[in-house]
TrEMBL record:
InterPro entries: AA_transpt_TM (IPR013057). Residues 12-26 have a biased composition (Polar residues). It is found in: Membrane. Residues 1-26 are annotated as: Disordered. Residues 1-11 have a biased composition (Basic and acidic residues). The lineage of its organism: Eukaryota, Metazoa, Ecdysozoa, Arthropoda, Hexapoda. This is Amino acid transporter transmembrane domain-containing protein. Residues 52-454 form the Amino acid transporter transmembrane domain. Pfam families: Aa_trans. Coiled coil: none annotated.
Amino acid sequence: MSSKEKQDVENFKSTADLTSNPGFQSSLSIDSKDACHEKAYNPFEHRQVEHPTTTFGAIAHILKACIGTGVLAMPAAFKNSGLIAGVIGTLFAGLVCTHTVQLVVSISQKVCVEAKKPSMSFAETCGAAFEFGPKRVRTWHGFVKTLIDYSIAVTYLSVLCVYVVFMGSSFKEVIDFYYPEYIFSIQAYCIATLVPLALICQIRNLKYLVPFSTLANILLLVVFGITMYYVFIDLPPITDREMVASITTWPLFMSTVIFAMEGIGVVMPVENEMKNPQRFLGCPGVWNTSMVIVISLFGVVGFFGYVQFGDAAKGSVTLNLPEDHMVAQATKVLMAIVIFFSFALQFYVPMEFIGRLLKQRKSDSYNNIIQISIRTVLVAIVVAIAAAFPNLELVISFVGAIFFSTLGLFIPAMIDIVYNWDRGFGCLKYRLFKDILICIVSVVALVSGAYVSVVGMIEDFSKSGDSSHVANETFV
């Protein structure tokens, strides 16, 4: 292979920086007589994935990314909406989340053709949407790409904080019941997860995470089955629960559902590494199949979980299971293991961005040591933050409101507007109005959800402070 051919192959790497290909100019001249006979660039034919993921593996990754702590928080979400409002809200949020991801993947595949690149990350797609959008915004593409990269990294590190709190809460409930003489704080249990999480996060290839995702999905089915048994046993009358809760708590519902369903950061890495990426969209398609399963599970767990536990529903329904039943306690441990296996997949998202930054180094010396150090330090930071804010329900709502409503709803709608500004929005500009509506929903969810979550955190912190003060006086 000649040096020029090698250089061309390197330019087709999915991790290539958009800014390293200024303008994404085609090598064809506009006036070329052969231009009309040039075969359209097919990005799928040029992808060189060392370890491609199968269609089944892609579905497993998507399900594992979307079905985690979020599905178990649905009864608490329904507590904040009511039964009727919860069903309608879940369907609405599910359809919107499904559509916004379709927007991102569709735009990514289109700009790959224009840029003559085999694949792009989520951030690269956002930058390219501006690059190939209206002339007056094209210079923003580098800034947009960098902003999205950092935003995704922070978002998924926040998700990992939720995972750590969940694992700590689950183990604490079980150990406190069986060993009451050893009562440790939730912070101690969060810190105890540091070493195992740091070890599993050293896995660097998405393909090698497929067995973990598959095992996690199998265990999740077991947990789901046992949890549903306790949810349906001696089910109270539906009339005992609110049909429509106070509107002041709806933001908590919407923020929790968005957090639970949204997997925007995992979608592009999965699609980019598929063996047959053309199967990702369409009907049935990887994404649509996965989301039908996700929405159905969320609706069932949320509805009947709230009917069973009512206002006592916790941030994870497994924490509501009876403490004096060994099977119920085992379920809490199994779910903690599921989240542990899911941690590495979610961790892959910020590390993909960091990995691209590392590839810009002129030297490969000490690359392995740097990778290990960065991964370990990031896990340590996540654990420390989780230990500082251990209220699971409010943390889930806050992360959903601030991060996922922005990345999962606002950004996809915005890049769709930018990319299609000069290409048209269809009959009566229906796509433009649809995207604007999604942006409005995103902003409302962000502001209201964040406000209610922060107020709840402040109140929770005040109560814990008062309790500690009383405990200290009693001890003295």
